[in-house]
Amino acid sequence: MKSQRVDLRIDARWIIPIEPHGLTLANHAVLLDAGRIIDLLPAVDATARYQADKHVSLPEHVLLPGLVNAHTHAAMSLLRGYADDLALMDWLNLRIWPAETAHVDWSFVHDGTSLACIEMLRGGVTCASDMYFFPDAACAAARKIGLRLVAGIVVIDLPTRYASDADDYLRKGIECLDQYRDDPLIRFTLAPHSPYTVSDTTLERVAMLSAQLDLPVHIHVHETIKEIDDGVALHAMRPIARLHALGLLGPQTIAVHAVHLNDLEIELLARTGTSVVHCPTSNMKLASGIAPIAALTAAGVNVALGTDGAASNNRLDILGEARLAALLAKVDTGDATRLPAYQILRMATLAGAQAVGLDEQIGSIESGKQADLIAIRLDATEMQPCYDPASHVVFVAGREQVSDIWIGGERRMEDGVLLCESNAATVRTARMWQNRLARK
């Protein structure tokens, strides 16, 4: 039988494809052509069936789908450590919002997003779902670095340096969508900030646009008890009930944080097919609470992982979030069997892709999907012995072990070296912004 010619063959000691669930393959190969996955099969069979223009061997590595950061504010990397050890509303009102009012413009967002994209890539994140002002600047930065970005068309009923009112936010965001409509690495969500910063009228318009434009809705919800109490006082219902009444719960909606939920709300999220993004580090750092992730997943809710912004985390490290999420679920429930490694890896990959509407394109190593892949080295002394590669990725390895990255079949990192713009230039730019903010 004549062999099929393809662009690239990647052999790895282990491959965790995510689908089928709970599977680790030893000594297999992934075949790529025109940026997509063509096949996944034993290495000996790959030799018989395919002829690759390029062959990469990863003899001490585990190959995975690229990680998905399902919620971040990338540009806020420039505010890393700027407002630590404060409660959420003090953090926002006393530090973050005043700093944004003084400094956030197109350049701030472009430079901060560039910094964030490099950090995320180093940690194995190949796709990020962002929510911030000047989404055109974020798109330009992500495109330059080569990261897959789901840009949020941010909406808030407050004037900022970016837009004057809800109509202005939506108009500018849709102009950005039109600009990047045909870009293979850029997708969009509608991103109303939260129920407490967006009116019923604006939320109803968001629901209408979501249906018309076939866009997911990305929103913070039930992050703190105060948010819920204020929502009840103002609207006579809890925020999730309000979103449901306005037609905003469903498979198109990404509910970020969802820390404080009762049993009826968990059932409602499951019944409507709403996704939740769990940001454990940010929730802990702002003392918001521990989200009931074990109960959500048991109910069938799609739960993804996010970092939130570097201003409240202070890292954009999905591998770190995966480990923390697993440990928190165990201690929160008193059940050491909750959120085992394979389930956490799905949350960090395919569940994130599903939340942002890209699960038919990325999130697992399956034929026909985009070749977003990462390799993690497991040969260091501190990682020996290795009985279970999936467990090792979650509980032993860190982002510093990510060695190789492909996005859409294009190599972005080779043996630990990013193949993009100079790190030194990015550091200089970040320090320039640090000096500006410090003077204020």
Task: Describe the structure in your own words.
This protein is an alpha/beta fold and 440 residues long. Helices cover 39% and strands 24% of the residues. It has helices spanning 43-49, 88-103, 106-122, 135-145, 166-179, 200-213, 225-235, 239-245, 263-272, 280-285, 293-298, 318-333, 341-348, 350-355, 389-395, 423-439, and strands spanning 4-15, 25-33, 36-42, 50-65, 67-72, 125-130, 148-155, 186-192, 217-221, 253-257, 275-278, 303-305, 373-377, 402-407, 410-414, 417-418. The strands form three sheets. It has an eight-stranded mixed beta sheet, with helices on one face. Strands 5-6-7-8 form a four-stranded parallel beta sheet. The longest helix has 17 residues, at 106-122. It is globular, with a radius of gyration of 21 Å. The model has no long low-confidence stretch (mean pLDDT 96).
